[in-house]
């Protein structure tokens, strides 16, 4: 009875809280978490957060209804490919669960016929590729087996989980040579491991596009906040957003930092506004990624891969220290584990470059590397961060100060570049003994080099950036933080939520 009265009292007081809807939602999350700690049923917490987040709900679908497709930036690239006269067979590459299959199915709606074959499930079809049949013979047999026409110009043929059949990967280029008008797409989880063993496969005859989890812009699209998304893209340091619009964008940024951009998580939030449910989904995703470890081609113990991945999260900023993973692990094996995690798309590499000119990779030095998570939601779940620190506080104060903001910026830089590029991220570290000068990211745009310093809040010095700009004789640097767009002296200010603008 006492618990029930406490719940009602808190619920009523919640509606009296002033401020933005995001702040109210954050208090709701905190209350729900508190109720869990004192023994309240999870169902009560769920009801509370759904009630508080009601303003963010876009659609509610029944379980038996088809889930609404959420628009992705890569949709335009796929559409252009489908309409091109020279549409080479396409490999859609990226980590598992980032939305590759959904994007292809969405594209398939534009075709008269759509054929999807999961080569992991349909191992009986592997012989079609292993026996050396021509593309025409393969399509003829598939058409009969699946009872669906496969016609050049009218059919989208999709091979999912193609890594399960290496022979199918090898046969893709023949489709371009023998059936150039047929639209063929292939994708798969852990595809990079299979491609590594085929270094020269399909050169010049197969096109690759890289796909990632939702960017912040795509998140706004999913919430039906397209006008806000457009305003963010159009804003510049010379023409900043109105302060009320900037504040609204920060609201959604704080939510995005918590739930991240994994499609299942975004879809659940759009449907229900329930952040606690999103946390459950993120936990399940982390388990599924770890279950994949045993599928990696290299013989690295699963426990070691888990420890290395967690160490990436814990080390946060600065050079990755291999010995911090564990005293029992040798550095060469840790390096191999990191390579495996990069190939799986779970982490990205940030490499030091001397940055004396472009291209940046020409002066990259592999001895200095950082690693960042592919998604902020997965990162905060791994670190078990306090959500209210992100959602409610005026500053983003975390256990590993600034690391979440730094990961977000790196992820946005990756997601905002053209999907046919797959290069490392770059940083700069002053190579002097006992020097701590470091620039978080270095990018090149239109032949010019820009240093980027990430600040978790609205304050902070830029000593490292100044050292870098003086050493490289650069006239502009970029600071990204919770501040609005702006400019002072030689520093351009981009809000965290708009850092992707510099890649567009």
| Number of H- or I-type helical stretches | 20
Helix content: 40-55%
pLDDT averaged residue by residue: 84
Count the E strands.
Answer: 14
Are there runs of 5+ residues with pLDDT below 50, and where? Answer: 1-65, 398-402
Please give the order of strands in the largest beta sheet: 2-3-4-1-5
Strand percent estimate: 5-15%
Report the C-alpha radius of gyration, rounded: 24 Å
- Gross morphology: globular
Distance from first to last alpha carbon: 57 Å
What profile does the largest beta sheet have? 5 strands, parallel
Structural class: alpha/beta
Tell me the count of domains: 3
Pick out its properties:
single chain, 504 residues, alpha/beta, Rossmann fold, 3 domains, five-stranded parallel beta sheet, five-stranded mixed beta sheet, 20 helices, 44% helix, disordered N terminus
Q: What does it look like?
A:
By secondary structure, the protein is of the alpha/beta class. It folds into 3 domains: 2-56, no CATH class; 74-210, P-loop containing nucleotide triphosphate hydrolases (Rossmann fold), CATH 3.40.50; 217-503, no CATH class. The chain has 20 helices and 14 strands. It has a 5-stranded parallel beta sheet with strand order 2-3-4-1-5, sandwiched between helices. A 5-stranded mixed beta sheet has the order 10-11-12-14-13. Helix 4 (74-83) packs across helix 5. The longest helix is centred in the first third of the chain and has 17 residues, at 21-37. The model is unreliable at 1-65 and 398-402 (pLDDT under 50).
């Amino acid at each position: 009875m006492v618990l029930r009265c406490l719940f009602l009292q808190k619920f009523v007081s919640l509606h009296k809280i002033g401020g933005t809807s995001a702040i109210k939602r954050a208090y709701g999350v905190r209350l729900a978490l508190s109720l869990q700690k004192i023994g309240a049923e999870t169902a009560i917490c769920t009801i509370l957060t759904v009630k508080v987040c009601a303003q963010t709900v876009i659609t509610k679908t029944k379980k038996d209804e088809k889930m609404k497709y959420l628009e992705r930036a890569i949709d335009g690239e796929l559409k252009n490919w489908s309409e091109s006269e020279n549409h080479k067979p396409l490999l859609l590459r990226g980590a598992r669960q980032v939305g590759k299959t959904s994007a292809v199915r969405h594209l398939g709606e534009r075709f008269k016929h759509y054929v999807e074959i999961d080569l992991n499930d349909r191992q009986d079809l592997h012989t079609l590729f292993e026996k050396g049949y021509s593309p025409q013979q393969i399509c003829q047999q598939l058409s009969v087996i699946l009872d669906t026409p496969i016609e050049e110009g009218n059919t989208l043929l999709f091979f999912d989980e193609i890594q399960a059949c290496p022979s199918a990967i090898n046969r893709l280029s023949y489709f371009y040579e023998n059936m150039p008008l047929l639209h063929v797409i292939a994708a798969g989880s852990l595809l990079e491991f299979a491609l590594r063993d085929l270094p020269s496969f399909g050169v010049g005859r197969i096109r690759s596009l890289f796909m990632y989890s939702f960017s912040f812009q795509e998140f706004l699209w999913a919430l039906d906040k397209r006008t806000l998304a457009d305003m963010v893209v159009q804003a510049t340091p010379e023409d900043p957003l109105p302060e009320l619009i900037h504040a609204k964008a920060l609201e959604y940024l704080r939510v995005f930092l918590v739930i991240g951009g994994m499609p299942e998580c975004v879809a659940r939030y759009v449907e229900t506004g329930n952040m606690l449910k999103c946390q459950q989904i993120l936990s399940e995703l982390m388990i599924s990624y770890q279950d994949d470890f045993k599928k990696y081609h290299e013989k690295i113990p699963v426990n070691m891969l888990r420890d290395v991945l967690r160490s990436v999260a814990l080390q946060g900023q600065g050079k990755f220290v291999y010995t911090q993973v564990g005293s029992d692990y040798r550095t060469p094996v840790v390096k191999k584990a990191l390579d495996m995690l990069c190939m799986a798309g779970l982490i990205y590499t940030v490499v030091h470059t001397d940055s004396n000119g472009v291209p940046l990779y020409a002066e990259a030095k592999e001895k200095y590397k950082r690693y960042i998570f592919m998604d902020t939601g997965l990162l905060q779940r791994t670190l078990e961060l306090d959500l209210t620190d992100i959602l409610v506080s005026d500053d983003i104060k975390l256990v590993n100060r600034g690391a979440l903001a730094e990961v977000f910026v790196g992820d946005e830089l990756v997601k905002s570049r053209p999907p046919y590029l797959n290069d490392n991220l770059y940083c700069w570290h002053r190579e002097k003994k006992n020097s701590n000068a470091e620039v978080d990211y270095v990018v090149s745009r239109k032949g010019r080099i820009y240093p980027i310093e990430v600040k978790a809040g609205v304050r902070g010095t830029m000593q490292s950036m100044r050292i870098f700009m003086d050493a490289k004789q650069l006239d502009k640097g970029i600071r990204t933080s919770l501040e609005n767009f702006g400019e002072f002296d030689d520093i351009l200010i981009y809000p965290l939520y708009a850092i992707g603008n510099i890649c567009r």
